[in-house]
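Hello again,

I reread your note about wanting to compare the complex against the isolated chains. To keep things tidy I'm splitting this into two emails, and this first one only covers the full assembly. Below are the input lines as submitted, including protein chains and any nucleic acid or small-molecule components. They are followed by the predicted structure of everything together. The single-chain runs will come separately.
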Amino acid sequence: MWELNDGQVETIIEGIYSRTDVVFVEVKATSPAKQWTKGHLESLKPLTNSVDLTHQNNRGENLLIGEVTIGLTLKNAKNKVLAQFWTLIFSNFIKTLAISFVMVILFEKLVARHLTAIAQHVSHNSWLCSESNLALQRTITTQPDHLDEIVSAVNLAKSTIQQKYNTLEAEIKYRKTIESELKENATKLLGANKEQAEFTYAISHDLKSPSNTISMLLAEIEIAEGDNFSDDGKEFLDMAKKTARRMQILVDDILQYSNTIDDGSNKKNVDLSRVAVEIIEDLRADIRDSSAEVSIGYLPTIQGIEIQLRMLLQNFLSNAIKFKRENIPPVIEIDSTVDHAEGITIVSIKDNGIGIPLQHRDRVFGLFKRLHTQTNYEGSGIGLALCRRIVINHKGTIQIKANADQGTIFVISLPVSS
Amino acid sequence: MSGLKIQNVVIIDDGYVDQLIYKKILLRTGLVGSVRGFELAEDALEFLREPDRPKIDVIFLDINMPRMDGFEFLETASIEFGDYFSVAVVVMLTTSLSDDDKKRASKFRMVVDYINKPLSEEIVVRVAKILETKQPF
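Full-complex prediction:
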């Protein structure tokens, strides 16, 4: 029989109970049955476990002498774990903060300030025009990194844009030059038109006036002497009056032409054949004096300005007579072909005169351009310039070809209808 | 013809031959007494300044002339003779086809007619009719 010492058991129970988290200790003795309890089970609902109390006797047998039950709560353990948890969190936070701070400083030092530099460089107004490239203040690394890539991309973009900008700038400069040239030419043109108007005015007096005077003189001669004239004389007087009249008409026509420069509105059907015959009539005196032989082939009716076309043919014919070779009577052929497919009339005026050297063939169409002195051949240098303008007015072209028999062939292409 | 209607005519025209013919035409109508011709407008002004000159019924005036043209003559005479000149009778006789000239001429009170050359007897008759209501200058 074992009797458990009360005092000892209670001391042990006290000792156990005083341990952290122990809320309940109970010892039960089997014989004699006795129970020691410390603490409560109900209120704290602890974890409980029971252990048998045994005693080994002299024969080595284990005898059950009682049972110990201990109740534990995890309240303190929980608090401990929580405390450890918060400590861990806080210390980690501090560490992260410290590392972040270092990272921010490093980032600022290594990256951000360069990005700011790039942004400042790019946002500057004149960066596209400036000569200097973007360069960052950093130690040179052998291996180019992302920042270097950005820098070279920015510089490449800049040089590309700069090239395009320079091209555009050159283009604008070129166009401005052209524009000012155009303005200048427009001013010149206005001046030329004014000059033309003054020229017209001068013609109205200087040409019209003498032709009027001649008409009046012829009328006076007829009144004073008409009855005394022979039949031939009367006929010549009549022809003279008609010629003077034609001269007045021509002067009026020139005025009208000058007044309708660049005005293609009064185009109508013109029978070139009739015009050519009338011109030969006008030039009869010259033709007779030079013993010229003029033949007119087929000439069509085309749409145009009659006075201009008349002046055109008349200039070519009178030139052909004027620029004859010495002692060789002029032989002049006017002919034409019609290219129906193209709607073009090709008029050719062929002479056997002195010809126009190849190197002067463009020059002769210039205003006041002459190849001869006034002593050899009189003239103003207006004729062929006028011809060219007339042909341009009719949207045609003029070419000079050499005649095989020495002389000139003028080839004029004119649209049949405008 | 019912006697002389235009006693004194002045022609201002730089064309000597034209003047000769105009004189012939004017006199042939039987309406004109005497014709004075001036090739320069300045000479005509000199004549108009003479105190004992005869009164002038009509001036035939060309526009395009050397030195002083027709318009300058009209302006100079207007300034020099003042209102007195405004009652004079001027007929423009010109080859100018310019509308501007015609408009410019019509602004002068004394210009009663604007004739494109040549002068004819019919025109002289027409001028004589206009002069019936006018006083010599």
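For quick reference: DSSP finds nine helices and eleven strands in chain A.

B.
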